[in-house]
Sequence to fold (150 residues):
Amino acid sequence: MLKIITSVFTMLNLALSLSKEDVLRIVCPVKPVRTKDGLHCPVCPDFTSRAGEKTEVFEIQQVLIGRFAKGKTIAVATYSSKYFCEPGVYVGGHIVLEKEGNGYRFVYGRPRYLGFCKVLTGKDEDKLLCRGEICKLEADGLNCQPAGKK
Fold:
């Protein structure tokens, strides 16, 4: 019985999983390139400030999957462009994708760098803990407040 439950749990995790490479293939307007440092998009994606410009630094840092919206499985991925695709104070940003059928669809990308985050599992919805802030997905994007603030 335990083996069956473990197998079902493993299959569920595989069905929900989304790798950094998967996200890159969804958001990169051209074929991603593999180098000694990993996979990256050779041009800035359409949602960035410098869409279509050549770059060697657009990469996915982290992919987090949770129930960030009621009844929906959402993936939040952080990206780094090392000040190129998002000039100024932004190191990179985040991408939101929604589970749809057997895959994920792009919802939006924003130039708000979250750093490395972890999922806080909730009863009805999950939240993210990023650099000391609790982030909740809302209709207009992520709303982050300092941890401990009500």
The first strand starts at residue 33 and ends at 35.
